[in-house]
Amino acid sequence: MTGVIRGTGSCVPSYIIDNNALSQFVDTSDEWISERTGVKRRHIAAKETTVSMAAEAGRRALESAGLSAEELDLILVSTISSDVILPCAACEVQKELGASNATCFDLNGACTGFVLAYNTANAYLAGGICKNALIIGSECLSNLTNWHDRGTCILFGDGAGAALLQGVEGRTYRPVTHSDGEKGSALTLKSRHDCNGITKEINPLSMTDDAYFMQMDGQSVFKFAVRKVPEAIREVLDINSIRQEDVTWYVMHQANRRIVESVAKKLNEPLEKFPMNLQEYGNTSSASIPLLLDEMNRKGMLRSGDLIVLAGFGAGLTWGATILQW
Ligand code: COA
What we know:
Blueprint: E1 2-11, E2 16-18, H1 19-22, H2 30-37, E3 41-43, H3 50-65, E4 74-78, H4 89-97, E5 103-107, H5 113-126, E6 132-140, E7 158-168, E8 176-179, E9 187-188, E10 215-216, H6 218-239, E11 249-252, H7 257-266, H8 278-281, H9 288-298, E12 307-314, E13 318-325
Parallel strand pairs: 4-5, 4-6, 11-12
Antiparallel strand pairs: 1-7, 2-3, 6-7, 8-13, 9-10, 12-13
Helix pairs in contact: 3-4, 6-7
This protein binds coenzyme A.
């Protein structure tokens, strides 16, 4: 048994901040952000929440798969920005959808989270533990972003993406995942506050300690990503005896255009095999891969039989790649 994606969905906030608007908050420019990252604008939650976006993305994935919520037996939400600590976001999504037969839990794998969620759901399906799994990446990173720090606030955005995985007879591809806790200090966050400083009221006390927002050594993370992601992709192709020319798409975590370009170059693959939408959404952490997959699906870019490599990297540090057949 293995999992195949039967449907996808996504949901992003309607409020958009472009680079020019951001330059009102911090000393930056559209030119700098575009050139160094590729990001042009990002969607920021005003009334949306991690759960509301996750539920809407999940509802759309169910619709696209033609399945009812009652048929779900697993809901897995990957997030680092859940609205509350308890109950978990997956249980809240269950409630919103009326998926009364599902087992629900969250997973914190940061920007590798969707790859880890896919692998976990696939293991459940391959093991016969469940038949229909809804996997969702949903993030409200604006709540965790220091809007006074130009080194980070230009990068991130909010949104959710979902995929409906169904167990069928077929080949299971072995994933590749790695972690290096020794290097965890490159990307940290001490705690969470429900204020993003743009669309919600700022708590002045919380702004006095930068550690309560995302802290990042951008250059270290950049170097880690451009070294480890191509290695993981080569490794996953190798252990599954798949040639690069058999891969139709590389759907990478959308962090920075230059990272994607570097990975394509190191693999000696055309950039056209690496679709991107980070210009529109910024880095949405565990939502970025399913958001992109859904966009590709809706545009009709995905054909039956296509081999797709998903690749993620991020805080932890964590990174990995997995192969799926459309
Ligand atoms: N606008 C204008 N100037 C900026 C700026 C901004 N938003 N951010 C930094 N700068 C300045 C710096 O102060 C520095 O100035 P200096 O030369 O006078 O000291 C200069 O630009 C270069 O800064 P640097 O940090 O070396 O830039 P960079 O090319 O490494 O780009 C990132 C910074 C954050 C865009 C880049 O490191 C990156 O994308 N890293 C990976 C981050 C990531 O993907 N994180 C998530 C992982 S899941």
